[in-house]
Write a structure and sequence with these properties.
The protein is an alpha/beta fold and 460 residues long. It is 33% helix and 17% strand. GO terms for molecular function: arylsulfatase activity; metal ion binding.
């Protein structure tokens, strides 16, 4: 699975490298960075999902370069979207980013390199200081956007206007942080009509209930559907999830069409990604607060001048996007970033820039991946999982007890990765909580959490 899968269409690698050199002497390319919220890596038709309709993202896949193992490193809080964006904008890892930083951030770096910088996203999921470096910065009313039924329409309207009005000689860097497909997933009938819940297959790792208490069983995201998760409920949620993604895809198409209409498409690098994935019924979960592949992986596509068509299984983080864009746009990469440029992989000079992936969520989960092997440790309940992702990509068969030697190797690697990324969380705690979970226990815990929340509101 760690092997490189690279397919070059029509041209050879030397052509693209020569083109890149020539482009460096010419005008810098524009950069359009499309960043969705809560979109799983497996929700793109051209990447193997025959049930979803994403024609415009499919075109980016067909023309660009895809990283199939792009990860959000994790989160120190339930709102995973917040640290994910902080890491992406700063190029720093989970325990090192500084939300007060301005100098050396993504937007500031591009601005200093001569780019006109444009930003629009929802409020609250990134420190505002990261956005102050943008020449044009505005925020969505994300709740209104999500409940309008037309995900992506407002942000696309603004982007289209900017592109039509843009008449400067210098290039632009446009960062668009879409509010969807994060819940509430309200889709207009035209998008919902694309999907019949009865015909949508369940996730292959669907479960009515997670097999044990992972430490985050009654978080807000998990209360979007009752326990146990029924097949009907999961299919309805998938319908709404896919409908919102199709709406965003349509509006991405409007933006790309405007690039073509205004003659800017041929000189624009387009990056498409998301802050992390989502469970939507996988493993009996609904949120993103887990270290399973469906929640920590995100799509990552680079398309544009000098970028060959291909796919790679190379490991990478979302905070690698920043230095990669710098490389592709001939912009100096700030010193000291944790992020690494992926351009050697895109150019075919290397099969990867990382040997391992480290994952973390609050104080309840830690994980590491090396080659085909992945280990997840739950210190608060003293549970360990080991998966061989080549043989078991859906993470259904825990091998931690049957392969103790491999489990020990991966635990040693996990401890080493914690040291590399300044993570102080113990992997063994005194008096761990029971891991046993039942529907009755979850419903009782959810009610207790709701009562606690109501009391807090009354005090305010």
């Amino acid at each position: 699975m760690a092997r490189m899968l690279l397919v070059l269409c029509c041209f050879s690698a030397p052509f693209f490298m020569d083109y890149r050199v020539q482009a460096a002497d010419a005008a810098k390319p524009n950069v359009l960075f499309l960043f969705t919220d809560d979109q799983r890596a497996d929700t793109i038709a051209a990447l193997g999902n025959p049930h979803i309709k994403t024609p415009n993202i499919d075109e980016l896949v067909r023309s660009g370069f895809v990283f199939n193992n792009a990860y959000c490193m994790g989160s120190t809080m339930p709102a995973v979207c917040n640290p994910s964006r902080h890491m992406m904008h700063s190029g720093m890892s989970l325990f090192r980013y500084d939300p007060k930083q301005i100098e050396g951030t993504f937007g500031e770096t591009m601005k200093r390199a001569g780019y006109t910088t444009y930003h629009e996203s929802k409020r609250g999921n990134t420190a505002r200081k990261y956005h102050t470096a943008f020449d044009h910065s505005q925020y969505l009313n994300d709740q209104a956007e999500r409940t309008s039924g037309h995900h992506g329409r407002t942000i696309a309207n603004h982007a289209v206007k900017f592109l039509k009005d843009y008449d400067r000689d210098n290039p632009f860097f446009m960062y668009l942080g879409f509010a969807g497909p994060h819940d509430p997933r309200v889709a207009a009938e035209e998008w919902k009509a694309l999907y019949d819940p009865a015909e949508l297959p369940l996730p292959e790792n669907y479960k009515p209930l997670h097999p044990f208490d992972n430490g985050e069983m009654v978080i807000r995201d998990e209360q979007l559907a009752p326990w146990p998760r029924t097949e009907e409920t999961v299919r309805e949620h998938l319908r709404d999830y896919y409908a919102c993604i199709s709406s965003i895809d349509f509006n991405i198409g409007r933006i790309i069409a405007t690039l073509k209409e205004t003659g800017q498409f041929e000189n624009t690098i387009i990056v498409f990604s998301s802050d992390h994935g989502l469970a939507v019924g996988s493993h009996g979960l609904f949120g993103k607060q887990s270290l399973y592949e469906h929640s920590m992986k995100a799509p990552l596509i680079f398309s544009g001048p000098g970028i060959p068509h291909g796919q790679s299984e190379a490991f990478c983080y979302l905070f690698d996007i920043f230095p990669t864009v710098c490389d592709l746009a001939h912009v100096p990469i700030p010193a000291g970033l944790d992020g690494k440029s992926l351009s050697p992989v895109i150019d075919g000079k290397s099969t990867g820039v990382r040997d391992d992936i480290f994952l973390a969520y609050r104080n309840v989960m830690r994980g590491v991946r090396h080659g085909d092997w992945k280990l997840i440790r739950y210190p608060q309940v003293n549970v360990t999982q080991l998966f061989n992702l080549r043989e078991d990509p859906l993470e259904l068969h825990d091998l931690s007890e049957s392969d103790q030697e491999q489990t020990d190797r991966m635990m040693t690697l996990l401890i080493k990765q914690q040291s590399v990324y300044d993570d102080k969380q113990p992997l063994i705690v005194e008096n761990p909580q029971p891991a046993t979970i039942t529907v009755e226990m979850i419903n009782k815990a959810a009610e207790q959490a709701a009562n606690k929340k109501r009391k807090v509101k009354r005090r305010k």
